[in-house]
Predict the 3D structure of the following.
Amino acid sequence: MIKKEMSKKIIIVGSGNAALTAGIAALEKGAKVLAIEKGNKYLSGGNTKYTAGAMRFSYNNGDELLPLIRDVNDIRLKKTEFGSYTKNKFKEDLLSFNEGNPLTKEQEILVDNSYETICWLASHNVKFEPIYNRQSFKKGDKFIFWGGLTLASENEGVGLFEQELKSFFSLGGEIEYENPVTNLMMDNDKVVGVQTKKDKYYSDSVILASGGFEANEDMRVRYLGENWRFAKVRGTPNNTGDGLKMALDIGALENGYYQSCHATPMDLYMKNYGNLDLEPIERKKYRKICYFLGIMINANGKRFLDEGKNFRNYTYAQYGAKVLEQPGHLAWQVFDNKVKDLLYDEYFFKDASFVEADSLKELISKMDGVDITATYNTIRNYNKSCKSNNSFDPTKLDNKSTIGLDLPKSNWAQSIEEPPFRAYPVTGGITFTYGGLKVSSKCNVLQKNGDIIKGLFACGEIVGGVFLNGYPGGSGLTSGAVFGRIAGYGSVSSI
Ligand SMILES: Cc1cc2nc3c(=O)[nH]c(=O)nc-3n(C[C@H](O)[C@H](O)[C@H](O)COP(=O)(O)OP(=O)(O)OC[C@H]3O[C@@H](n4cnc5c(N)ncnc54)[C@H](O)[C@@H]3O)c2cc1C
């Protein structure tokens, strides 16, 4: 433990999950920590506050989750099957998005430190609760969890932020709001502080935790393509790639898939950003990810993806991009009455956009912008192909696949024939970007020749190479905490 009188000054750029975990770790080691945040108090916490607070990590059995759960007296726990989510399974899940590439070093670090890091958070009184409403289905009187994702912070992302903030402040951390960092200050080859809109701040190390570039339209178009001009931004307006640009300006090495990002089907009529003022249950109101219970149809009246390819945890982050690629950057999700009770709450919020009818013909006539005949034929052909005798079971990959379609629906393929019918218009909403900086195993930012940039660390969305061409849900916060903790420790020990 470094003694207080020797304590070093660490500046952290940002105040989200990655920044706060880095701060807590550095404070634990005796450093003096100042986080400098672009947003005001309301927008501090960045994308972290917009999340569901769900965190993916490896565990071997339900008992390993108990020390992480705030309310261990919840009577449902006795009737809950959490299963297991081993390191190998987490690695397999990441590999499935790597397009044949092996696991990256960053992915190994993420998985190998995931459980330990969540336990460390719990030791700082950041606690969790099982995600009964979205990650389990009831079978008899049992709650069966599926998809490897089991816990979220109490009160979702805002709750996670508040718990981490409390720990950060209680250890002596400080935050300056409304003070965007504009440049990194150098003395020869070492980063010695930051220049902000208001002042210069000197420090022994700087940790960049300023998120990705999802809210920067020009960068989206440059790196991801023209379609991304039209993407709705699901999180903060402040993640405009500032930290990334500052680091690249002083010769940092790019890493990861700049051409890919996390994007989700969202209500066509949602506004950019927003929703922080709502209750947690309502904050996700524009997200529309129950396509696995029905089908998605584009303006040409065609299906364009396998809605049942895998659990939605493994598809929702990719399917927003697929929707954006469609004519008019939109699609319709179509369901019948059989699955109505399984649709998530957000499908029933009073201002959710949808049309409803008692016949398919009437429904389609209400679906603005679609080719009516083609849509009708697509649904009819889809219904004819739902011939599998397997039982429908949303708690597992049930192999209830369409039969005979060129583009199958591989699981949960039930015909759409029981009125009333509903269709929801969706577009693609960008969540965060995958391309970022290359860091060492201690989270030092590397320069193009592979050497570290002295005095500079990075963690969170700004780190590249963690997610390549896809994302198992709930991994972003874990990544932020894993790399945040390492960066916090690294920034102190390297001095
Ligand atoms: C709607 C939504 C739902 C999500 N749900 C989940 C989920 O349930 N589970 C999960 O794992 N992940 C989820 N994610 C992804 C998750 O939000 C991110 O992976 C994670 O929050 C990133 O943390 P971070 O600390 O790197 O960035 P952020 O939390 O975005 O923090 C970055 C901070 O840097 C600040 N900043 C930017 N530029 C500057 C500057 N120049 N100077 C000073 N400060 C600056 C920003 O204002 C912001 O406060 C979700 C994202 C969204 C948008």
Notes: Residues 1-5 have pLDDT under 50 and may be disordered. Residues 76 and 143 are 8 Å apart (CA to CA).
